[in-house]
Design a protein that fits this description.
The chain has strands at about 1-10, 20-25, 30, 45-55, 60-65, 70-80. It is an all-beta fold and about 80 residues long. It has one domain. The chain has a four-stranded antiparallel sheet with strand order 1-4-5-6, with no helix packed on it. A two-stranded antiparallel sheet has the order 2-3.
Amino acid sequence: MNFGTELKYKKELMNVDEWKDKFTVLDVEKEYSRPLSKHDGGVVEAKISASLDIADKVETSISYSIDSTGEGVTKGAITYKF
């Protein structure tokens, strides 16, 4: 069994306020909002994971990550290696 931890800091260097798209449909002008949230200070993400070799070529793993915006993600996988 293997355990792991990871700590990341992510900062978007481009100006996300300019990430908007304008379009016109039947003489009505609309604007898409930017595709991501703006975080001036960046986002910190922490992740913990565990993996277990079930058989010679089969591995199962699970991980949980949470970031400073409060979003948490749980992932699981079963991997077969040829």
